[in-house]
Amino acid sequence: MLKLIFGTHLIWPVLFNILMGGLAPVFIYLLSFQLFNSRAVAVVAGLFSALSLTSVALSSQLLTDQPYFTIQVASLYYFVAGCQQNRRWLLLLSGLLAGYGALVQPMGQIWPVVVFALLIVLPWPAIYSSRRQLWKSSGIALAVMLIIVGSWTARNYAIHDLPVFGSNGMRALRSFLVAQSVAKSDGDMKLIPKSWDSWEIEDGNFLEDQKGAYANARQRVVDEFRAHPSQMISLYWQNLFENMTTANAYVER
Questions:
Q1: What is the DSSP letter of 61?
Q2: Residue 138 near residue 87, CB atoms below 8 Å
Q3: How far, CA to CA in Å, does 46 sit from each of 2, 51, 90?
Q4: For the segment 98-117, what is each residue's pLDDT rounded down to a tens digit?
Q5: Nearest to 20 by CA among 80, 52, 64
Q6: Predicted local distance difference test score (pLDDT) of residue 26
C-alpha cells in the first residue's frame, strides 16, 4: 500500500512513518485525558510514548508497526470520546480506523477485546440511563470494524479458499514460537534459523499456495503445542515481555 501511495521513492514512506510516530504520543495524551480527566496524567503518558526507545526506533524504519500502533490508539481515543459524548460520527470513525488498523496488521483483530474491557471497567456517562444503553450506542464502532474484517475474510475465502482474515499469523507462530520451542527442546538455539529455511521448503510457499502452506504451518503449530504445551505458553509470555520492555533490542555481533 505504501508503494501504491508513495511510489518507489523511499524518503516519502520514511517521512510518513516519522509522522505517524509523532502522532502516537498526541493520541495517547488525548486518550489519557479523556479517560482520567487529568492533564498531568495525560502529559506523563504522552511523554512515556514519545521517549519510548521502541517508538523512536520504529519511526525511522519501513515497518507497519508504527502506523498500526498510531491508528489503533486513535481508534480507541475516538471510541472513548464517542461513548462519553454519545456522538455516532466519532464511533463510526473509531470503527473505520480499527478496521483499517486490522488490515495494516492482523493483530488489530484484538481491538474488540480492548473495547469490551473499556466498556466493563469505565463508568457510564450521565447521558446514558444504563450501561446497556452505553453498550448499544457503542455497537456502531464494533459493527463497522467487524464488517471490514468480515469482508476481507470473505475475500480471502473466495480467492484463496481460506476462511481466515490473514495467514501470516499462523506462519509467524510456526517460524518463531514453534522454532523456539523445537530449539529449546533440543538444547540448541542455533537451530532456529535452520528450522526457518527447512520449513519454508517443506511447508510450501505462502505466495504460491496459500491454502496448502497455511494448512501445513497450522499442523506444525498444533503438533508442537500438543507435544510441549507448557513450554509453548511460557515462550509466548516470554516473547511478549521482551517486546514490551525492548529486552530483545540487543543483537550480539
A1: S
A2: no
A3: 27, 9, 22
A4: 999 888 887 778 888 888 88
A5: 64
A6: 93
Q: Are the C-beta atoms of 195 and 179 separated by less than 8 Å?
A: yes
- In 3D space, the residue among 67, 93, 99 whose CA is nearest the CA of residue 79 turns out to be 93
Helix boundaries (H) for 86-123? 88-104, 111-121
Q: Which residues of the chain have pLDDT under 50?
A: 249-253
Angle between the 131-160 and 65-85 helix axes, to the nearest 10 degrees? Answer: 150
Nearby residues of 138 by Cβ (< 8 Å), 6 or more positions away: 79, 82, 83, 91, 115, 119
C-alpha–C-alpha distance, residues 97 and 209, integer Å: 31
Q: Residue written as cell 532456529?
A: 192
pTM: 0.75
Question: How much is the CA Rg of the chain, to the nearest whole Å?
Answer: 21
Cβ neighbors of 94 (< 8 A, separation 6 or more) are 75, 76, 78, 79, 82, 141
Instruction: Note the pLDDT of residue 249.
Output: 47
CA–CA distance, 151 with 83 (Å, rounded to integer): 26
Distance CA 251, CA 125 (A): 48
CA distance 156 to 203: 20
